[in-house]
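Hi again,

Forgot to attach this to my earlier email, sorry! This is the prediction with MTE bound. I've pasted everything inline since the attachment limit keeps bouncing my files.
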Amino acid sequence: MMHQLKAALGGMLAGSVAALVTMLVMLSLRFAWGVATLPELVGDRVAPFLGVWYFLELLARVGGYNQLKQLGVGGVLAGLFVVGAIVGAAYILILTYRRTPRPETSARRRADRVLSAFVVALWLVSVAALWPNLGTNYSGLPLGTAAVATAVGLLVSYAVYGLVLRGLCWFLVAVPYNAREPMAAPRSEGRRALLVAAAGLVAAVGVGAFLRAAYRRAAYAYDGTQYRDPDIQRFTPNERFYVVTKNNIDPWPERSLWRLEIAGSVQRPRTYRFEDLSALPAVAQETTLECISNGVGAGLISNAMWTGVPLRTLLATAGPGATVRDVVCHGVDGYTDTIPLEKAMTETTLVAYQMNGVPLPPRHGYPARLIVPGLVGEKSVKWVTRIELVDHDAKGFYETQGWGPDFVLHTMARFDAPDFATPIPLGAAVLLKGIAFAGDRGVDRAQVSTDDGVTWGDARLAYRGSRLAWVLWTLTWTPRQAGEYRLAVRAIDGTGAVQTPRVRRSAPEGATGYHRVVAHVQ
Ligand SMILES: Nc1nc2c(c(=O)[nH]1)N[C@H]1C(S)=C(S)[C@@H](COP(=O)(O)O)O[C@H]1N2
Ligand SMILES: [Mo]
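Structure tokens for the complex follow:
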């Protein structure tokens, strides 16, 4: 009994060390070739099934998307460690279990068989369970190649676990075989355990260093970046453009590895290299992007000039099948979203490779992304690598989570200046400033109310660009009396429809209602 307990403890030690080495292998593959790690794959596999309400509740409980991502990664790593330790204990018990005195080699062979069966089974289960996510590759490999790379990466990681576990356990129990006292503790046993623990320490330090490096490169530093500026500009500077990403670490695709595939239900599937894409006739198009989770008055909205190829050029070349309904766009990060074929064939839907005149920055989808005017930012898939035409109604990452089903951008307006936290001196003329946006419908008018929505006056449209972009509005206001004023702003879109006053939260179809502020005049 005592011997078994001691053996099990040794096995747990060996198993934990093997698990740490496995993490080292996964992290090395991630850093060297962008191979998706188990925590990333599990997170992406699970996130869409949380349900939007539970997802938002989790975000609120843990403090935000970044925190949730980190907890997810930490949780899977901890799970890996625990499972590694338990399997280690099981393995060593099998290795040292002897019902009858028999040659040690047969015990080892039995243990080998069990362990390799376990490794293969674990791999098969992982591949099956993570099947839809295997195409993820952060160096930008095309989906098919990426899937193979991920599967091989998992196999290598699990195999390394098995080999290291086997080696360490054999090292721990390598005592002269004696059938009569199988686990008689030889003097060297304690020293060997110490050596294994030391190896574990080295591995742990390695994992720690990798995780710190990963943390430095992580999207946590910028995910959720909002663009608010009292001196708001027509074009958002690239480094201030809002960011939303599902990733812990965003892809950094190699342009030479990257491909854009037009696949699925098409007559002529095609694969474009970056040079092929950029050789096609391009357009420059000003388009504002806004996230579905942007709150009223918030800053998950920005505007840029995008240069790229109309998606319909590529689709026309491929020849969509007669029964196509949806277009599924895949990012190299395993993200997917869908647009109806009709939207994909609209001339303003682009595959863009430049943002405000320079190549797309990595976090905004380098080397190419979709720009889908009129629909929420989710649809503008970054790091796009495959555009797949399907005959059914498909759902993307966030739609599976429960967002939507209507993804048409709502008409919105926002105050950007002045800073209403500071009181306004009585008699002064204040310049009210802001943006107004109506998806792809264009903005006809922006109106401001200084009496809590009873009366409305037209603001001046200081800048009015493409139908697909926001407008900047201004209004000079000179309050006549001291006191508290309730201000609101609203837009009227290009069809003449007035922005809805109905207050709705961002889930599941985007926030609505007027941006309201309180001005103190004294
Ligand atoms: N591949 C990929 N594309 C993506 C996302 C993502 O996580 N991965 N996030 C989407 C979401 S939710 C939004 S709002 C926009 C944000 O684009 P931006 O970060 O360039 O502003 O990208 C969309 N495209
Ligand atoms: Mo978004």
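Residues 241-247, 289, 291, 331, 333, 335, 364, 377-378, 380-383 surround MTE (ligand 1) (CB under 6 Å). The two ends are 83 Å apart (CA to CA).

That should be everything now.

G.
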